[in-house]
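re: that chain from earlier
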Amino acid sequence: MKNHDQLIDELSQTIRPVKRTWPTGWRVAAWAAAVLPCGMLTSWALHSRFTDWSQPGSWLALVTLLLSLGIGTGAMAGAFTLSLAGRPPLRLKWAALPGIVWLAINLLNSSASPAWHPGEGIHCYLFMLTASLPMIVISIACLHRTRSLYPGQSLALAGAGIAFMSSMLLSLCHEVHLHRLDFAMHLAAGVTIVVLTVLCGRRWIALSR
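^ sequence. v structure.
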């Protein structure tokens, strides 16, 4: 096209105003405010009791609860940051350190008690999975706002954040001491949540070719 002014006019008429993305901190706060109530509501049918924080050794369960909240919001912050072009990816060694501490405390707080029933682990698995479903939808919608050059990594971080948030909700209605097989079901639920998030969101988060 030789008439560049006409091309500029046509492009100016079709272009849409650019909406500035919120800072990552505000995006994480809005995300947490949205996903936690939704997770609580969807998992309410599987809510059987409230945690008895007066039991001996309950401080370990409280520490893991707070760690789950911190790791969950931190992982989602990493997902939001990675979705912005030009931002450096999260350093895995620093991101993995709180997760290792969380894992160590849970293993310290777990035992192989013979009184454990397999149904307890299945109940926890279903609880985390049910709580995570609206979180996955909300997280994909939030990431769809900016898309990502690394959709797999962004969604994996988001899935990890959702898994830890679901674990935190489970801590509010769980025994303060864990059985090792029960904790294994918690981990299995977390892995399932990450895989579901990546599979469900990849199409919506990847940049158009």
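Residues 72 and 161 are 4 Å apart (CA to CA).
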